Structures are given as structure tokens and as C-alpha cells.
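User: Teach me something about this protein's shape.
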Amino acid sequence: MLLHLVDGTCEHAGEAYKTVRAELNAYGEGLTDKPEIVALSKADVLTPSRSSSRPRASNAPPRRRR
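Assistant: First, the predicted structure itself:
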């Protein structure tokens, strides 16, 4: 199980997530096949208007649990 903490105050949270996925892919060892959870850190500092306008980190459907 992998846990990704993405900075919610980052302007490009989706790009940050994509960077981590690319690094996992480059490392290999089957890391991209592991189930994952993506969590937004610093969500407490987001205003309602800012959090609702933020794109999702990934448009991919949730990965199935194994």
C-alpha cells in the first residue's frame, strides 16, 4: 500500500502527483502496481471556494483493492 500526500496549497497538485507516479515508474520494482491512497495535506488552510475549484489529482478511476 502506498500513501501519497499531496500539498493542497500547491498550485499544481495534479502535476505533483504525476511527478511522484513517474518516479515510481522509473524506479520499477512493481511499485506502480501497488494499491495507493492519495491524500491532500494542508487541506485545513483551503477556503471552500479554493478547494471546490481545484482539479482532482487524477482523472483516473480509483484503483481496485487487492
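Now, about its shape. Residues 13-27 form the longest helix (15 residues). The beta strands are 2-7, 36-41. If you'd like, I can walk through any region in more detail.
User: That's plenty for now, thanks!
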